[in-house]
Design goal:
This protein is an alpha/beta fold. The chain contains 10 helices and 16 strands. Bound molecules: adenosine monophosphate and magnesium ion.
């Protein structure tokens, strides 16, 4: 199947755009849609052929499963074999919102979605346009981030077009994504909920509902060679601009001293707002050092801007690892291919 033969249309997030997107989705086509986390590349989750087209358009490895998006709690039941009590409580508190839960899957979930696992990831987005499209299509929608596999996730319709223009029939423009990093992924199939990917709902917020929460080692460290990933997406280098990224831990002063000593053509910095003044190299900023929400909102856009600047090596100031900062740290670690320098 050809993936580069479309004249990609940009649809509005109004009634007309939503209806046209829903019609394409019902016809088995993939459509990029806005959510509160990042833009998703959606397709009918119950149609294996539609799902295959997502993998083709993204160039996504086939062993990386997809998240199914629903707009009503009643859509969850047919997809799973059981809904644990703790999952109900998390859904009551954080759905609709940036929380994905993993359940044992029912036979109606195509193998292509789960990449051979016996589980399925489900989320109910809060973005009004995403919800309206799911409702209008009358279908659960599989939707990974709408970027080419490995690139930073798209937080605007313009980013989607840069990666997917010509490869998909349409993108619905719903403005900039408010959270800016992907959903939190929690495995609910064991005794204790297990965090597989940090995201818009923080570990602290999850613990407030479920008490104990296990954190998968892949959240903050690289898997040993040959180790099996609980969340297959976590084993890939991801979220990456073309430049090599190195994450740098240390105070603002140590960071700027270090970066200035590396000054050379093609070397750039990604730093916190207000900390650029001491830098002697080209830079992008990505929010205040203490403002994890702003960092999440801007991190992918800033990584993409580095591509526009055509730099070869980026030293990135490391965020804090608590609250929403853990999600930002997790994405930057992967953008950096786990290359971290500590100046303390
Ligand atoms: P993305 O589609 O880019 O938001 O990535 C989805 C993430 O959810 C990836 O890290 C997947 O590996 C993870 N995921 C999806 N389904 C499952 C599942 N059934 N079990 C574990 N992880 C999953
Ligand atoms: Mg992704």
């Amino acid at each position: 199947m050809k993936t580069n033969s479309y004249d990609t249309v940009v649809l509005g997030g109004d009634e007309n755009g939503i209806e046209r997107a829903a019609a394409l989705l019902r016809a088995g086509e993939p459509v990029a849609i806005p959510t509160e986390t990042v833009y998703g590349l959606a397709a009918n989750a119950l149609d294996p052929n539609a799902v295959k087209r997502i993998f083709e358009a993204k160039g996504r490895p086939h062993d990386n499963p997809l998240i199914v998006h629903i707009s009503e709690f009643s859509q969850l039941e047919p997809l799973v074999t059981e809904i644990p009590d703790m999952a109900r409580r998390l859904a009551e508190k954080y759905w609709p919102g940036p929380l994905t839960m993993i359940f044992r899957r029912s036979p109606i979930v195509p193998d292509e979605i789960s990449a051979g696992l016996d589980t399925v990831a489900v989320r109910m987005p809060s973005h009004p346009v995403a919800r309206s499209i799911i409702k209008a299509a009358g279908l659960p929608l599989a939707a990974p981030s709408a970027n080419r596999s490995g690139s930073p996730s798209p937080t605007s319709a313009g980013h989607v077009l840069l990666d997917m223009g010509g490869r998909i029939p349409a993108v619905v423009d719903g403005g900039k994504c408010q959270v800016g990093v992907e959903s939190t992924v929690v495995d609910m199939t064991g005794q204790t909920p297990r965090l597989l990917r940090p995201g818009g709902v923080t570990p602290e917020e999850l613990r407030a509902v479920v008490g104990q929460l296990a954190i998968d080692p892949a959240v903050t460290s690289q898997l040993e060679n040959g180790a099996k990933a609980a969340s297959p997406g976590m084993k890939y280098k991801h979220y990456s601009p073309k430049a090599r990224v190195v994450l740098v831990k240390g105070s603002p002063e140590k960071f700027s001293d270090f970066v200035n000593r590396q000054k050379a053509p093609g070397v750039a910095a990604m730093c916190f707002d207000g900390e650029e003044t001491a830098l002697e190299v080209p830079y992008v900023t990505y929010g205040g050092r203490e403002d994890a929400a702003a960092q999440a909102y801007r991190v992918f856009e800033s990584l993409r801007r580095l591509d526009e600047m055509q730099v070869g090596l980026v030293y990135c100031a490391c965020p804090k690892e608590d609250g929403l900062g853990l999600a930002v740290y997790n994405r930057l670690l992967r953008a950096a291919g786990f290359e971290v320098i500590s100046l303390d």
